[in-house]
Amino acid sequence: MENIFINYSILILFLPLAAFVIQIFFGKRLPREGDWVSVGAISITLILSIAMFIAMLLDHDPNFKQEASFTWLDMGSFSIELGFLVDNITVIMLLIVALISTCSHVFSIKYMAGDIRYSRYFAYLGLFTFSMNGIVLANNLVSMYMFWELVGVSSYLLIGHWFEKDSSADAAKKAFLTNRVGDIGFFIGIMLIYTGIGSFTFSHIFDGVASGMLTGTTLTLAGVGLFMGAMGKSAQFPLHIWLPDAMEGPTPVSALMHAATMVAAGVYLSVRIFPLLTPDALLVVAYVGGFTALFAASIAITQNDIKKVLAYSTVSQLGYMILAVGTGVYTAAFFHLLTHAMFKANLFYGSGSVIHSMHHALHEKHDHESDPQDMRNMGGFKEKMPITYWSMLLSTLAIAGVPLFSGFLSKDAILAGTLSFAQHHPGHILLPLFGFGAAAITAFYMFRMMFLTFHGKPKMPSIIDDIHESPKEMTGPLVLLGALSIFIWYTLPYFNPLSSHGWFTDLVVPKDAVVPGNLTAYDIEDGAHHAHYLAMYISIGVAAFGILLAWAMYIKKALSAETWSSRAGLLYTLSFNKYYFDENYNKYIYQPTFRLANKVAWIDWELYDKYFINGFGRLTDWASRVTGKFDFDVIDQILVDGTGRIANLFGRTFKTVQTGKLQNYVLYVTAGVIIIMVIQSF
Amino acid sequence: MDQLNNYLFIAAILFSLGVFGVMTRRNGIAVLMGVELILNAANINFIAFSRFGGMNLDGHIFGLIIIVLAAAEAAVALAIVINIYNNMNTINVDEASALKE
């Protein structure tokens, strides 16, 4: 039992990489373009992850932790160690990644069938899974940073999978560059920590902070720096702009990366570094998360593109998790990460199934104008796609925070945490308000999406006959993940739909922060425990309010959506246009940068290149003309040709000796010998 | 009669005859015969010095080597003469002056 964790981890890490290498080099030549290589490799990692998960459950040791490391770079006093850290959080996260990744692979077999870069697509999925597992297994900031960037690259490659479309290529660039902004902060944070503590390994860093090697503002800045990396990856305000655009990628990619795993990397990082965050840094984290939760939810209300709704919903839910980290209940953040990964991935697969079906129906009618992702073209799909409908409904109930579903448990834990935080710090009453506000809006817009898509009369009656349920490669993951949206899987071996007490809370217990003076884990837990029932009542109340409002507007039509949106006026316009973030970034950041770059380019070309660089060129030209003349006139003409002429002269002079008569030569030789003998005899 | 000088005289005479033959003869074969005379004059010197100089068999060995060398030289030289004849229809060495100048 001892080392299966490390050995399995190595296999789980490198199998997807092997699949990537095979696919990228030989994919096109393999039968079926090699999708079975990727699916096979990822299935093995799923089996290994499940084995590790079961081993973890059997051990039932909340303090379980194994580390293995080796020296990667050794330069005397500066050395970098890389390694694995396997604890309960890692095992659960590996299972999430393997499970969602397997679902995405299977789902993609049909969804991507006939794509021109089918094998390349699977190759990149493998690369992504490898990088994500690398982040999960890292026991130090350096390897985490390396895999962090690899995740960024694979995200770029997958969003831009259909790079012939300008919008896809732009979205890929946008995602990559926006992430880079956060990564600068991440890198600064790593460097600050290394200067203070002299190590990249998490355990050493925590020991160093606990012994006061890094304190005060520097530690706060280091924490905020690391958190900036999380803000980029987890699409937190104000770096959230890339995630909705990333929906240009294939839907299984959106489900895998931009809903369940990659964007969760930021939350995972925050959970890992939680012990070293100072109270100030935690406040930054909490406010960023809380604001993002409410703000993104308010955009999701008015979107018409089904994937855009889900994208903003993801941003909002990630905001929840970050809010939880900020208020100290970081195990709740991780719990929400787990439940959210399941139901959000499922919602994306569901939307993928709907889009797939719409696409085919529109194709049948030779309609290339209508948008297959626009909910204004859907409606009444419930009877046509029952599996998709029911599994999406389960996940919608989960995300809305309805009791008996997984999202209720984790959301409740987070909201209890924020309430308790506000009780400890009465000045921060805004944080629970963000949380509950977002919960109400989430319930509303998720049911708005369900009602618009599946209920009511078909808005395009011409295509409704061509809408069919998707093939079983696509419904399989839907059924599986839909089932995983039910609470029971997360509370075993107990059966109490109102309490998150279960294997998760047994195995993932919060640890004290290492920063001296922070609240202890016991205080936080105790506070959250007391706030639990209040949080539960309020969250059930707001969820019910949101669902009823959506029902009244879109099913009962008692409230007209049009009247209300015009009544909201400016607010509606702001939300519909995503608060003009892209436009303002464009106007106040991109354009000035662009103009500055143009000016600098002008200086570079007009002044530097023309006078300095070209001046050098002219100088060199002149110098080489002079030396060239010297070379030709002096060296060539006098020295080189002179040698030749001298040799020529001698040759002319002595050629008369060569008579061609043998006897002459013999005479010369004899005469020569006689002369030498005569000279010798003196 | 049994004195070094006598041998050296004979060798000198032979050598002079050889050089004379090489220098005056136009016929390639005759030139070769002159060369043979020169070589044999050298041979006589070797053996005479070996005999009277008390150097055991060193000179004899040299003599034998020179005979072998002379045979090889004759074979090669005769082949050259035959080729000259084939190409120029003459064995007059004065005619074979294609490389002059």
UniProtKB/TrEMBL annotation, chain B:
It is found in: Membrane. The keyword Nucleotidyltransferase does not apply. Its main location: membrane. This is NADH-ubiquinone oxidoreductase chain K. InterPro entries: NADH_UbQ_OxRdtase_chain4L/K, NUOK/Mnh_C1-like. HAMAP family: NDH1_NuoK. The chain crosses the membrane at residues 6-23, 30-49, 61-85. The keyword Transmembrane applies. One of its GO terms (cellular component) is NADH dehydrogenase complex. One of its GO terms (biological process) is ATP synthesis coupled electron transport. GO terms for molecular function: oxidoreductase activity, acting on NAD(P)H. It is a multi-pass membrane protein. Keywords: Membrane, Oxidoreductase, Transmembrane, Transmembrane helix, Transport, Ubiquinone. Belongs to the complex I subunit 4L family. NCBIfam families: PRK05715.1-2 (NF004320). Its EC number is 1.6.5.3.
